[in-house]
Amino acid sequence: MKAAIQGIRRRTFLAMTGASAAAAILAACGNSATPANTPTSGGAATTGATAPTAVPMMVATALPAVAQTAPTTVPTAAMPMQAPSNGTLRIATPDKLTTLDPTGASSVAGPTLTVSRQIWDSLVVKDPMTGDYRPSLATKWDTPDPQTWVFTLRPDVKFHDGTAVTSADVKATLDRITQQKGPVQPLWGTLDTVETPDPLTARMKFKAPIGTVLGSAALLPVIPAAQINADGFFNKPIGSGPFKVNSFKPDDSLTLDANPTYWGGAPKLQSLVFRIIPETTARLTSLQNGEIDITWSVPPDQLPKLKGDPNLVVTPTPSYTYYFVWFNSKRPPLTDKRVRQALLYAVDVDSIVKNLLAGIGMRAQAPIPATVFGFAPQTPYAYDPNKAKQLLMDAGYMQGPPIDMHWTITGGPQIQSIADTLVSYWNAVGVKVASDQQEPGIWLDKNVKLDWDMQLQTNQVTTGDADFTLRRLYVSSANRNGYGNPDLDKALSDAAGIPDQKQRAMLYAQAEKIIWDDAVGLFPFDLTENFVYSKKVSGFVPVPNSIPSFASVSVAK
After folding, report:
1. Are the C-beta atoms of residues 525 and 349 closer than 8 Å to each other?
2. Which of 182, 226, 243, 248 has the lowest tally of Cβ within 10 angstroms?
3. Euclidean distance between CA atoms 543 and 546, whole angstroms
């Protein structure tokens, strides 16, 4: 099998991370009536052979430091003006940028999120180093009761046209997100009302207790109420962020100019130029030729050359993105947990990481990455073909028509080689699997309709909070993968409604054990994001969600 993997590695494949696109697709398919990451409905999974024994639950300790039951405040004074901005940072994105609207269908697409962070401010931001939530437009937040969150806004913040940012803008943004019913809408699915008793106070009332608001607020771009629904507004929108729109050509380029009166201090750059270069070779050639200054989503076979370039810096960063294969638990033979577990024991995950994902992947330990709040490591499924065969025998498995595994070329890095390797492993234990590459539109349509046996793809936990993925994708009412379990539903529902972060983390540990032991899917790899940039660039801070801010970046002449 190792020889087979090495043979695959030597082929040339289109190397794309697709993490952002996959996150957008997954989120767009979410049931808008359920939390942003709810699973598919279905009867409880069938039981069979004893699942792997989980190690004692170790809960991620990078809990948000904000005590959500008490007010959080910081000084509200604006930062002093800095020296005049100069220089241009040229950025190449691997995915298409089709719109600047951060509230609609592309609201969780990687390029949209990256650009939005430069143009708009959110209520809070998540510190990439500590995982703590820090003030942004909001300087204070409080939860007077479990169903109410009150945000106090920073005074004297202006949009790019000079108008003041107020609580009415927060309300208008949330209203539009609700109306658009895009992939970010489920984050606010239980929002009942937004009250604006004064220009600097936004009081959010929810239909049920909720503990996930700060993660959602970190993805909330506050847009001017007076213009948010105007025709053509998002062709050249205005925000309150460190950069303002100069020009935009969908799927081609975007130019942003520095906001010299930004409340957080003027950017060090004069402008940002985003170029959309989806083809990997062209993008990396442009970087090495000095035509662009920074990019990311680099395939593993290109890393040695880039690391050897004396003019470039390669910064590997553990990300919120991971690979997984879902099993449709409503379709025989995958209705039997023993069959699903057999498919996990049949795969040598460590060998795939070594041979196909060197430098961009590591073995996963849970259904969510280790970088995410709520992560709890599980006992790995060791590579054991004999155990896989025994489980198949115990389940009475008889080889029938091939099991189809759907995937799309934009689904993640090295996806074609990974698909081929997985099929080889499963065929080796007597399970015939057919690799079925599909066009993204067809793949998405079949995904929504549960018209598939298995799916190979990547996903990003965009908020860095387990709720974004676990509740959106795995509660029964989500109807995402044919699996349903009342105990899982309760753990995820309870975790979403508890402000105490330690209690939430313990509940997510319970949920992850259920998902892992019931083999709802194969969760083989967590992905590393490699940011690559010119040595002329300084002040860049890599982030696990691949949504960097460029406000502190400068470029030497």
Report:
1. yes
2. 226
3. 6
